[in-house]
Each structure stands twice: as C-alpha cells, then as structure tokens.
TrEMBL record:
It catalyses: N-(5-phospho-beta-D-ribosyl)anthranilate = 1-(2-carboxyphenylamino)-1-deoxy-D-ribulose 5-phosphate. The lineage of its organism: Bacteria, Pseudomonadati, Bacteroidota, Flavobacteriia, Flavobacteriales. It comes from Winogradskyella eximia. GO terms for biological process: L-tryptophan biosynthetic process. Residues 5-191 form the N-(5'phosphoribosyl) anthranilate isomerase (PRAI) domain. GO terms for molecular function: phosphoribosylanthranilate isomerase activity. Belongs to the TrpF family. Its EC number is 5.3.1.24. SUPFAM superfamilies: Ribulose-phoshate binding barrel. It comes from the Bacteria. Pathway: Amino-acid biosynthesis; L-tryptophan biosynthesis; L-tryptophan from chorismate: step 3/5. CDD domains: PRAI (cd00405). Transmembrane segments: none annotated. Keywords: Amino-acid biosynthesis, Aromatic amino acid biosynthesis, Isomerase, Tryptophan biosynthesis. This is N-(5'-phosphoribosyl)anthranilate isomerase.
Length: 199
C-alpha cells in the first residue's frame, strides 16, 4: 500500500483532521486503502467539482467524517452531502468579496480560505491574511495556503489580530511534502511543537 507507513506516522502526531485527495487530476490523488487510524482523527475527503453520487459513495467507502470542497460547488450541492462535516473552500489573493459566503452560511459547517493559484489547492504560497480582518461571519474557518515552518512567526502575529477570532484550524500540506502525498514527519513534528510553544 503506497504511503501506508507515512499515513500512520502522520496519525501518530494526532492531527484533528487528516485529508485524502479524491481529485484525479491531482499529483496527490488517493486510490489506496486508509489504514487504521485513531477515531479522534477525522478523515477528510478532498473533492473538486465531483458528482454528488461519487462524493457520497466515497464517504461510505472510506468512512469519511468530513469533505473539503475545492471547486465551484453550489450551496444546494453542499446540502446534499450525507451526514459529514462540509468544509467549503474559497480562494484569496490580495482581496476578496465576502458577499459570496452568504449563500453558504447554512449549507456548510466551515469555510476554508486558501491561496488563489493555478491549481485548486496545493499551490505552496500564502495569501494576504490581513484580508480576513473584514471577515463578516461568525462561522469558524480553516486557514490554508502554503503554511510551513517558516510561517510560525506570522501565525503568532495573526493569532493576536482580530482577523483570527474565528480561525478554527490550520490546514497544512505542500510545505511539508517530500514528494506529492508523502509527508516529512520530522518537519511536521517540529511545526506542531513550535506552534504548541507559541499558544
């Protein structure tokens, strides 16, 4: 099984969520079996404009607890997803029209703000987090986009700002990869420990 040991090693770091990418155009496309991991970790399926039928079927097949939607999924689409947390992704660069969030307020559990780039996720660089000072919602959100060890100080500063009030989680990926889908456990552990010290 490709990367089974790596998945288990990441799980030992006890993240709240662990993502598996079910987008076949991604270099990180997951087509294996998820090994046994602690029930405290929510398994997340990452999708891009997939059919509702396939998303719901994948939820059952892999026993997912959440989905992360990186495409142009509508609020109606989000409401059709079966019995799991729905994380709807929005891409930001230097500005963002927060009005687009309103229709999704009752359709998903969390928002996720990622960096606008050529790819739907995994672009490897951060957007201007100051944009989130204008966040109009009380819905908790995930902060994503090129977050690595070099962002620790930036994260500390962000946590002191009003923009971070509803920041629920940090989503990390490409900055901790040895190759697509294979995570650097040592660097992830360092990141986790440095974040814990800064809390």
């Amino acid at each position: 099984m490709k990367y089974k040991d790596n998945i288990e090693a990441v799980a030992k770091l006890q993240p709240d969520y662990l993502g598996f990418i079910f987008y076949d155009k991604s270099a990180r496309y997951f087509e294996s079996t998820i090994p046994e991991i602690p029930k405290s970790i929510k398994k997340v399926g990452v999708f891009v404009d997939e059919t509702i039928e396939i998303v719901n079927e994948t939820i059952k097949t892999f026993n997912l607890q959440a989905v992360q939607l990186h495409g142009n999924e509508s609020p109606e689409y989000c409401k059709e997803i079966c019995h799991v947390e729905v994380i709807k992704v929005f891409s930001i660069k230097d500005e963002f029209n927060f009005d687009v969030l309103q229709p999704y307020e009752k359709a998903c559990d969390y928002f996720l703000f990622d960096t606008k780039g050529k790819l739907p996720g995994g672009n490897g660089y951060t957007f201007n987090w100051n944009v989130l000072k204008n966040y109009p919602s009380t819905k908790p959100y995930f902060l994503s986009g090129g977050i690595g060890i070099d962002a620790i100080e930036k994260i500390k500063e962000f946590k002191k700002s009003s923009a971070s009030k509803y920041c629920y989680a940090l989503d990390v990926n490409s900055k901790f990869e040895i190759e697509p889908g294979l995570k650097n456990i040592k660097e992830l552990n360092t990141f986790k420990n440095k974040l814990a010290v800064s809390s």
